[in-house]
Amino acid sequence: MKTLEENYDIVVVGAGHAGCEAALAGARLGLDTIMFTVSAESIALMPCNPNVGGSSKGHLVRELDALGDKQAYSNEMRKTLENQENLTIRQGEVTKLLVEDGRITGVKTYSGAVYHCKAVVLCTERK
User: Which of 78, 106, 90, 74 minimizes the C-alpha distance to 37?
Assistant: First the structure.
């Protein structure tokens, strides 16, 4: 069985608020970008806990929560991402960073697929 291998300029791991912004920034700069999420349903889904990433992000989460628009934000961001040129969204778990001679060369997913790239942006959840 042949292993999937693809090439991108940027790999973004995580599809929370930071991951979405990083993926959009790369794609809008014309860089071939792929963003990984463990669940396509959780793209841009911000937790209700305002203690995420400092006071600024906490403030944003509280405002969206107060307006009752967290799901609307998630839906709108997902639409924006899906329609962005140069951006691919994949549901999958990145399990390994690939490094050669001290430089990042890509990532490997749980399924064994390899995604070669020039840069990796980690936007994973803190636990």
Answer: 90
> pLDDT for 69-119, tens place per residue?
767 778 888 999 999 999 999 999 999 999 999 999 999 999 999 999 999
Q: Cα(68)–Cα(25) distance, rounded to whole angstroms?
A: 27
pTM for the model: 0.82
Residues 6+ apart with CB under 8 A from 56: none
Q: List the structure tokens of 19.
A: 């991951």
Rounded Cα distance, 115 and 27, in Å? 16
| Beta partners for residue 37, in sequence order | 91
Rounded CA gap, 108 and 78, in Å?
24
CB neighbours (10 Å) of residue 33?
27
Helices (H), the chain: 17-28, 55-67, 70-82
